[in-house]
Amino acid sequence: MTEFSESYSPSHITGFFSADNNLNPKKKGAMGAGIILKDGCITKAEKNNSEEIKIYINGVEDEAKTSRYVALKILKNEGVKISSNFDVPIKGGFGASAAGAISTALALNKLYSKNLTFNKLSEIAHIAEVENKTGLGDVDAISVGGGLVMRKKGGSVNYGSFDIIPVEEKKVGYILIKEICTKDILEDGKIMGMINKVGKEKLKSLLKRPTLENFMKLSCEFSSEIGLVDGKIKDAIEDVITNGGLASMAMIGGTVFAINKYDCLRDHGVLHETEIMFGRSHIIR
User: Fold this and answer.
1) 10 Å Cβ neighbour count for 11?
2) Is there a contact between 175 and 265 (Cβ–Cβ < 8 Å)?
3) Which residues contact 159 (CB under 8 A, 6 or more apart)?
4) Spatial distance between the Cα atoms of 177 and 257, rounded to a whole number of angstroms
5) Which backbone phi and psi does 10 adopt, to 5 degrees?
6) To 10 degrees, the CA torsion angle through 70, 76, 80, 85?
């Protein structure tokens, strides 16, 4: 029988952020805030008889640079088949690469008895994201513990500064309108300049009134002020607000997410529902 291990990671939607740059990838990251969601990723790691690393995303073989980076940092000539299956869209602003990276790290650590701590595994996944420009702070938010997470200083869990805003159990509705490549945004100096300016302002405002409702309001302002909201996304957000709900655009992805009265999103795309997750990535078996 093939030896295997499985692990789970929730996903994460960033509402607003600013880059916290550092030459040390352990200390480089993002400040901002986001919500941890129950729908996420399950990764299965299986031993094989070669030294080859094969990675499958939703059943299709993939280069998966971020997860591969994690595997190469943890393994020493061991072969493995890594299968990550997502409940959320890829390139939709759900921190999918982060969820894949941390769940891969956990599964490999268990499968090959590497005996690394959670924070060490999280740091490996964080560096993988930074080096491959697939994200800046999703791994760290996912690793903190769930709910509504504020990142007050960028960097991995060993260097950043985090806090959690107490919130109630809450359903979250979302529609994917288009895919956006995170790397394209992170490499655009003009957009990042605006993101850094506005993101810092929104974090200050959230610290003054740390509530879920204020987070949603500030996220909506952020997405509008940085200029990433196009016609369809703007229409969907405004429709939710008109109907008494709160909505914004996921960072970085063409997803509209909302709380409270969001059933009208059905008029703009395929509506999915999940809920805020109070927990973090863990081994299943």
Assistant:
1) 28
2) yes
3) 26, 27, 29, 153
4) 11
5) -70, 170
6) -10
* Of 7, 26, 25, 28, nearest in space to 17 by CA: 28
In the three-class reduction of DSSP (H, G, I as helix; E, B as strand; rest coil), residue 42 is classed as strand
Helix (H, G, I), strand (E, B) or coil at 216: helix
Q: How far apart are alpha carbons 81 and 59 in whole angstroms?
A: 12
pLDDT on residue 264: 98
* CA nearest neighbour of 22 among 125, 101, 128, 130: 130
| CATH number, residue 176 | 3.30.230.10
pLDDT digits (tens, 9 = 90+) for 176-204: 999 888 888 888 889 999 999 999 999 99
* Overall pTM surpassing 0.90 (yes/no): yes
How many domains, the chain? 1
Determine the Cα–Cα distance for residues 87 and 38; give it in Å rounded to an integer.
9
Using 50, 70 and 90 to split pLDDT, how confident is the model at 255? very high
Owning domain of residue 150: 1-285
Task: Tokens 């769940």: give the residue.
Answer: 103
pLDDT in tens, 117-174: 999 999 999 999 999 999 999 999 999 989 999 999 999 999 999 999 999 999 999 9
Instruction: Work out the burial of residue 263: count CB atoms within 10 Å of its CB; fewer than 13 is exposed, 13-18 middle, 19 or more buried.
Output: middle
Instruction: Report the C-alpha dihedral over residues 225, 231, 237, 240, rounded to 10 degrees.
Output: 150
Q: What angle do CA 262, 173, 147 make, to 5 degrees?
A: 120
**178 with 250: CB under 8 angstroms?**
no
Omega before 165 cis (within 30°)? no
Tokens in use for 64? 């998966």
